[in-house]
């Protein structure tokens, strides 16, 4: 292996480590993708994870300055096709190889900026945030899965957005307590944390279920090497959502809902068997 390939490989390994440390469910999902998709998706996750850490974690730092620097370094890495930041180097390799649209990157980073100066969102700001924080990440992954097939990308684009939207809204419900208490955020438009009741919860759940339903056609049409991993993510979030739906609103405002690791493994095995037997 020559020196350049060694450098590239080690940066991908850094993104893989980040994924493994931060997300058990995402790591399991990646393992079910075709091998040629593993490193590209690790690279995308590493990038979005570290950007998210800037706005959510470093409370004793100047977050705006950190995010501005990260944004500048991202665009410089993509243009120069190199970065000594391993996360950005791995990401730029994938952006350039799969021609990931700059608009998607800009929308994602803008959503991180929105978190820095969070105000209660109205419907338009809520949709803007959902698009930038979740839907575009799904579209970055879709660019990888389609491997340059523009017609396939355009055909699957809307369902991919719906799936990303469903995932993010489930996250908002799951993290309602921590988002409000630690960051002063309630993302759902017009929702008062102190008046979160059954009617409010039901309206949110109906909106999420519609996104899940609209995404299914896209999962069925994915390339074979990507279908199982995305199906697993869908099943995981649907199970999490089902668990949330069964809980009273006061529980949602008092604790974070989780799926145990053993259940995640069970979902993984079930999806694998379905795929091998041709049931999916």
CATH class: Mainly Alpha
Compute the number of helices. Answer: 13
The helix-strand sequence is: HHHHHHHHHHHHH
Q: Count up the domains.
A: 1
**Gap between N and C termini, in Å?**
39 Å
CATH homolog superfamily: Farnesyl Diphosphate Synthase
Tally the beta strands: 0
What fold name stands as the CATH topology?
A: Farnesyl Diphosphate Synthase
Percent strand equals under 5%
- Low-confidence runs: 276-280
Shape: globular
- Give average pLDDT, whole number: 90
Tell me the major beta sheet.
none
Please bin the fraction of helical residues. Answer: over 70%
C-alpha Rg (nearest Å): 19 Å
In the CATH hierarchy, the architecture is Orthogonal Bundle
Task: State the secondary-structure class.
Answer: mainly alpha
Task: Draw up the topology in text.
Blueprint (H helix, E strand, L loop, with lengths): L2 H20 L1 H8 L3 H22 L6 H18 L5 H13 L3 H15 L6 H24 L3 H25 L1 H8 L14 H23 L3 H22 L3 H4 L8 H17 L3
């Amino acid at each position: 292996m020559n020196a350049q390939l060694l450098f590239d490989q080690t940066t991908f390994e850094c993104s893989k480590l980040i994924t493994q440390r931060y997300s058990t469910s995402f790591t399991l999902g990646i393992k079910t993708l075709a091998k040629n998709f593993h490193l590209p998706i690790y690279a995308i996750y590493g990038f979005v994870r570290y950007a998210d850490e800037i706005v959510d974690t470093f409370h004793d730092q100047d977050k705006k300055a950190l995010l501005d620097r990260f944004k500048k370094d991202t665009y410089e890495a993509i243009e120069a096709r190199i970065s000594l930041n391993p996360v950005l180097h791995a990401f730029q390799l994938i952006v350039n190889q799969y021609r990931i649209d700059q608009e998607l990157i800009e929308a994602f980073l803008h959503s991180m900026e929105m978190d820095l100066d969070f105000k209660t969102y109205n419907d338009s700001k809520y949709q803007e945030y959902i698009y930038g924080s979740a839907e575009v990440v799904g579209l970055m992954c879709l660019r990888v899965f389609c491997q340059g097939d523009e017609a396939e990308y355009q055909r699957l684009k809307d369902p991919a957005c719906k799936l990303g939207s469903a995932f993010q809204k489930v996250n908002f419900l799951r993290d309602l307590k921590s988002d409000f208490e630690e960051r002063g955020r309630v993302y759902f438009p017009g929702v008062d944390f102190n008046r979160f009741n059954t009617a409010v919860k039901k309206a949110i759940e109906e909106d999420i279920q519609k996104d899940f339903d609209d995404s299914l056609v896209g999962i069925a049409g994915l390339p074979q090497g990507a279908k199982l991993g995305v199906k697993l993510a869908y099943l995981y979030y649907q199970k999490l959502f089902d668990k949330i739906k069964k809980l009273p609103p006061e529980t949602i405002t008092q604790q974070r809902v989780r799926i145990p690791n053993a259940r995640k493994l069970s979902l993984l095995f079930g999806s694998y068997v379905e795929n091998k037997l041709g049931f999916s």
